[in-house]
Specification:
Oligomer: single chain
Organism: Thalassospira marina
GO cellular component, one term: plasma membrane
CATH architecture: Up-down Bundle
Helix content: over 70%
Structural class: mainly alpha
Strand content: under 5%
Number of domains: 1
CATH superfamily: MFS general substrate transporter like domains
Region (Disordered): 429-457
Number of strands: 0
CATH topology: Growth Hormone, Chain: A
Distance between the termini: 40 Å
Keywords: Membrane, Transmembrane, Transmembrane helix
Largest sheet: none
Shape: globular
Biased composition (Acidic residues): 437-446
Order of helices and strands: HHHHHHHHHHHHHHHHHHHHH
Number of helices: 21
CATH class: Mainly Alpha
């Protein structure tokens, strides 16, 4: 009998608490470092490199995290990474140097990627197929709520002191408590399978570009968004509010936008978001005083147009995949996202240095314009699928490939594995199948056959 949403949340409360404290601590640390680097007089490019280093470590965690967990176990991995991440957070206040901070940020990204992997694999072990939808909604709410609250914690102490570093360290350490004391049996081995990037691009060029563009937006927002607000002359409290509303805007409208993409072709919803982002990025040049006085409102609109792009890209790619490829494709998309996110703070800091505070919105407009042109081209000339062939949109965090198994998409994987009848001809076809067909091949897979990979937009 399926558990009620309340009973499910109670059963998962310890693990969700770990996720909440992880996101709160990492969110606080990210904005704190961006503002502190600027106040210490670091050159803008150094600030960009420091913030970009996090994503290089994050990608490393995606690549090697599964092997570490499978080798030493979930609890040992979580304990080691949480302790390391907590210690590194404190060391930022001791060694105030761009090179040192860059190394620390890379190590933080590696630690957090592994920590998210353990949390999500533990959640996946505790839910059944009937509970995945409610659990995923709870996990998304807790994660985004933690990110938003972490921004508001900037108001608790001056950024020039060590207190906020201590608070971020404490939050990371607290995430260890429910995992270390849990009586739940450890999850099974974590899959480290990933799809090759070349194959991912061949399946869906638009999904690939969407994930890459989303990485640039997120890297720039989280990496130098606080610096952008500080350059406008805002006090710390207003900077925290601005970042809070960016996250809140994306959090509130991500699901309605996703539902809209289930009712019309997803590429059109993506194009609409990108067009909206172009205007959002250009408005500050037309009405700078209005935007400066209402920066939190503008930030919420920015979140609406940027944050759903990654989840839409994942859903779009999945529309052209068999369920067995969902998790490997998720791993590849996260590598694309993380690699692109590393460029966001660097390019964003350069735009801020060259164009002034409004250089960051200009960057968003330029990248969104390029993506919109590509998406429009693909919508006109790429292969399309019908609305009936589209899967259901599921909002997913940009954390680890395990989140795909955790989501209701895992139901489709489980259902296909459990109910597909054995057929020798199908087995032979799977053995000889090396890759999806190229888009320029004459023969195309039948859209009526769900076992045949579909080549995408």
């Amino acid at each position: 009998m399926p558990r009620s949403p309340l009973a499910l949340i109670v059963a998962l409360s310890a693990t969700l608490f770990a996720a909440f404290t992880l996101n709160s601590g990492s969110s606080l640390q990210s904005s704190l470092l961006a503002l502190r680097a600027s106040s210490e007089g670091f050159a803008p490019i150094y600030t960009g490199i420091i913030m970009a280093s996090y994503y290089s470590g994050f990608v490393g965690g995606i690549i090697w995290g599964a092997s570490l967990v499978n080798r030493v176990g979930h609890i040992r991995t979580f304990a080691a990474l949480a302790s390391t991440g907590s210690a590194i957070t404190l060391l930022h206040a001791v060694f105030v140097d761009p090179i040192t901070w860059s190394l620390f940020r890379a190590m933080t990204g590696l630690c957090l990627s592994g920590l998210y992997l353990v949390v999500e694999s533990w959640l996946n072990e505790q839910v059944d197929n009937n509970s995945r939808g409610a659990m995923m909604a709870s996990y998304m709410t807790v994660s985004l709520g933690g990110l938003a609250l972490g921004q508001l914690m900037l108001n608790l102490s001056p950024i020039s002191g060590f207190e906020l570093f201590t608070l971020a360290s404490v939050l990371l350490s607290l995430s260890l408590v429910p995992i270390a004391l849990t009586r739940q049996p450890p999850p099974s081995a974590v899959s480290g399978e990933r799809m090759k990037l070349k194959r991912l691009f061949k399946i869906s060029p638009l999904g690939f570009v969407g994930a890459a563009g989303s990485g640039v937006f997120s890297g720039a927002i989280y990496g130098v968004g606080p610096v952008f607000a500080a350059d406008l002359g805002l006090p710390t409290a207003s900077i925290a509010t601005f970042m809070f509303f960016v996250i809140l805007g994306g959090m509130i409208l991500q699901w309605p936008i996703g539902r809209a993409s289930d009712m019309v072709p997803r590429q059109y919803v993506l194009i609409a978001l990108l067009v909206g982002l172009i205007f959002t990025g250009l408005v500050p040049y037309v009405m700078p005083d209005l935007i400066r006085d209402n920066l939190s409102v503008w930030g919420a609109i920015l979140g609406v147009f940027t944050m759903p792009i990654y989840a839409l890209s994942v859903a779009y790619v999945n529309d052209y995949l068999t369920p067995d490829d969902f998790v490997p494709a998720s791993g590849a998309l996260l590598i694309v996202y993380g690699g692109s996110a590393a460029f966001g703070p660097i390019v964003g800091s350069l735009f801020l240095d060259y164009f002034g505070p409004w250089g960051l919105p200009l960057l968003f407009a330029i990248v969104a314009f390029g993506m919109a042109v590509f998406a429009t081209y693909r919508a006109g000339f790429g292969r399309r699928i019908t609305l009936e062939e589209q899967g259901t949109f599921v909002a997913v965090p940009r954390t680890t490939p395990m989140v795909t198994e955790l989501s209701p998409l895992g139901d489709e994987i489980q259902t296909e594995d459990d109910t597909a009848p054995f057929d020798e001809a199908t087995l032979a076809e799977e053995i000889i199948k090396d890759d999806v067909p190229r888009e320029d091949e004459d023969e195309t897979p039948s859209s009526d056959d769900p076992a045949t990979p579909k080549t995408g937009n």
